[in-house]
What does this fold into?
Amino acid sequence: MDRLSIALILALAAASVSAAARPKCVLTGFWINDLGSNMTINSVNKKGEFSGLYHTAVSATKDEIKVSPLQGSQHRKNEQNQPTFGFTVNWSFSDSTTVFTGQCFVDEDGKEILRTTWLLRQEVDKLKDDWKATSIGSDVFTRFQ
Ligand SMILES: *[C@@H]1O[C@H](CO)[C@@H](O)[C@H](O)[C@H]1NC(C)=O
Ligand SMILES: *[C@@H]1O[C@H](CO)[C@@H](O)[C@H](O)[C@H]1NC(C)=O
It folds into this structure.
C-alpha cells in the first residue's frame, strides 16, 4: 500500500470513530446563557417531558425577579444525539409567559450548547395594545461547569 492509501484509510477510520463516539447532548443539568440567566433542567422522562427552574438576569418588569418554574418536552424520535425541545416559563413575579424552542448541540470541542429562540408575551390591559405585547429573541446556553 502506498502512503496515500494508508493516509486515506486512517482518515476514514478517524471519521467513523468520531461519528460513532459523538457525544449526546443531554438537557438535564444546570445551564447559563449569554446574559447571565440560568436554569436547572430536571431529568427528562421516557416521554421526553421535563420540568425545571428558570432564573432570569433580565426582566421587562420592575418587579423583583424570582426563580420561576418551566415545563417542557424534548423530541425523542430515534433517540437523537442532538434533540430539539421546547419549554414554557411561567414567570412567578409577573403576568408574562415565555416559550422557548431550540436544539441541544454538541460543538466541535465536545461542548454542549443550547441554541434557542423565545417569544415573550406580556399582559396588556386592552385588546388595542395587543400589537405590542409579544417580543422575540434568541439565547445561547452552555452547561455551567
Ligand atoms: C443565576 O442567575 C441569577 C440571576 O441572574 C443570579 O443571581 C445567580 O447568581 C445565577 N447563579 C449562578 C450560579 O450563576
Ligand atoms: C405558575 O405560576 C403560578 C404563580 O407563581 C403558580 O401558582 C403555578 O403553580 C405555576 N404553574 C406551574 C405549572 O408551574
Q: What stands out?
A: Helices lie at 3-20.
